[in-house]
Amino acid sequence: DALPISLREKANEHYNNQQFEQAKSLYEQALDLAPSDSRIVLQQDIIDCLTSMGNHREARLLLKQLMWEAHQSGIGHIEAEAMFSLGEQLYDEGDKGTAYDYMSRAVSLMSGSNAADAPNCLCYYHVKLTRKYCDDGNYSQAIQESKLAETAYHQMNDSIHGLRLLRTALSLRAYLYLLTDSVLEANAIYRQWRQLPPSSIVAMQSICLYLEASGRYQEALDIYSQYEEYVLEKKGRYSWPERQVKASTAGIYSKKGMPDSAYILMSEAFEISDTLHARQAE
What we know:
Elements: H1 2-16, H2 20-33, H3 39-52, H4 56-73, H5 76-92, H6 96-111, H7 118-135, H8 139-153, H9 159-179, H10 183-194, H11 201-204, H12 208-213, H13 217-234, H14 240-255, H15 259-281
Helix pairs in contact: 1-2, 2-3, 3-4, 4-5, 5-6, 6-7, 7-8, 7-9, 8-9, 9-10, 13-14, 14-15
């Protein structure tokens, strides 16, 4: 069994370096050699590679296969993971009704699981659903999902990852309360957010939606500036996170009555978008 493990470790290195084609090839080699009880994990790895490469059709077929195999084997938490991922793909493709059905079923299935990482997955699912309901304008359901994420957080065993998810859940709830004219509740959640232990700038920047909506522009700009430094170091100038930072900062400058600065930043954001689309087409 050592050979598949060694191959998976090498594949993980490629995946972490965003070398998804090389990672997929090694995962597939490991899958051919793996015992039956290790196959499901490697199938998940291959699906992650396909998704990262933009090959959503093949990923969706493998997700359905994985979901069926996990169901047949009685591995509920793996079935739930595959079901939620399939729901996310369908959501991105515009089939939101079916997507929400899959994701809701996945949450129910994971809630009944006694797997060690079930609370971690539930917290992640509820944060994801918070974002989706927010984007769809269903603010009351989004607020409810953020509360469920906070409940799941208190049962988690991964404190670092959990803190990042909790920050995101609280940030979104504070923003959602502002959108629904619940200013006192929004400010109370923001105070709760500020009392959390320090964490990475990746987690901190989620509060910028609330800060911008409440007119605290300079605080949001300070966080975006730190986040941009992180993005440039980790991902470089031509990346989607950098594009998002430019566009978000431009929006703040526009609200502050600084159209020239906003125009320059949006021009840079469009330049990044054009370059990334060209790379994807190539």
